[in-house]
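Anyone up for a design puzzle?
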């Protein structure tokens, strides 16, 4: 399928984690807004020494059948939840064998968006961290990856879509995705650039940043005239400032590679750090992004 093929679904990784329901809910809403199919993927890791999965004469085949049935039941439970949330939504499922990162990375080759749940852990400031699956996937698939932190009540569905802008070519796909997300959700868009404090607070430097932001948004305002856009320049450590600014946002969007420092947003120190500080859904958009 081509990157703009209407058959590309919104894909969500499903597991037995407590974060899965929130990821499915976010993905179902995203699929409905984009007019896309929702595809739920569950990867089953077979224990070492388990019976061959395709040998029906194996003594452990009964156990294997139950193992696979449990995977199907898990998918069906999430299908029922998504269908209740969005009646009429087209939903498909994939039950695959293998390690979740590898399965989801391959499956995402045919997706317009990949959604994964991430978890909150106890620690200083109640930091947010990627699951092992999320950490290994972000920045690798050809489509944007959205990490949904905790439950969906932790973000404001009426808040703006916020995008970090650093002036690099790598941030352009993030801006495109942010406009698309804002338009489909009838939300405002907040474009933010963070400058390091050292000499970055000079009036001419601040003005330069506003020029950067305006140039990054050029063309997209005309394509999405219905989106109300605000621009903001703040001083400080990029990941921390972006997270603080995003507390009232419906999602935070960043690129995955940039200019280095902050003018380097994407897996990239800023994106990696936001894994610990993002207050809600975090969308990481690769430079060659497939969007809907």
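Challenge accepted. My sequence:
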């Amino acid at each position: 399928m081509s990157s703009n093929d209407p058959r590309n679904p919104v894909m969500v990784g499903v597991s037995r984690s407590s974060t899965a329901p929130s990821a499915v809910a976010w993905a179902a809403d995203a699929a409905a807004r984009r007019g896309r199919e929702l595809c739920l993927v569950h990867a089953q890791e077979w224990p070492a020494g388990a019976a061959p999965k395709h040998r029906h004469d194996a003594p452990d085949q009964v156990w294997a059948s139950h193992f696979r049935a449990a995977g199907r039941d898990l998918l069906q439970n999430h299908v029922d939840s998504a269908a209740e949330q969005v009646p009429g939504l087209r939903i498909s499922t994939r039950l695959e064998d293998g390690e979740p990162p590898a399965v989801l990375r391959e499956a995402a080759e045919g997706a317009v968006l990949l959604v994964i749940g991430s978890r909150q852990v106890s620690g200083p400031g109640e930091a947010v961290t990627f699951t092992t699956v999320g950490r290994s996937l972000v920045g690798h698939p050809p489509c944007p990856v959205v990490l949904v932190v905790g439950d969906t009540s932790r973000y404001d569905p009426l808040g703006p879509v916020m995008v970090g802008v650093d002036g690099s070519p790598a941030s352009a796909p993030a801006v495109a995705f942010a406009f698309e997300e804002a338009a489909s959700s009838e939300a405002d868009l907040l474009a933010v650039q963070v400058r390091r404090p050292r000499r970055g607070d000079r009036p001419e430097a601040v003005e330069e940043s506003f020029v950067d932001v305006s140039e990054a948004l050029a063309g997209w305002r005309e394509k999405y005239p219905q989106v109300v856009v605000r621009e903001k320049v703040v001083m400080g450590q990029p990941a921390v400032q972006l997270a603080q600014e995003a507390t009232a946002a419906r999602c935070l969007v960043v690129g995955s590679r940039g200019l280095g420092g902050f003018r380097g947003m994407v897996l990239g120190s800023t994106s990696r750090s936001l894994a610990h500080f993002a207050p809600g859904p975090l969308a990481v958009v690769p430079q060659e992004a497939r969007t809907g």
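A detail worth pointing out: Confidence is low (pLDDT under 50) at residues 121-131, 258-267.
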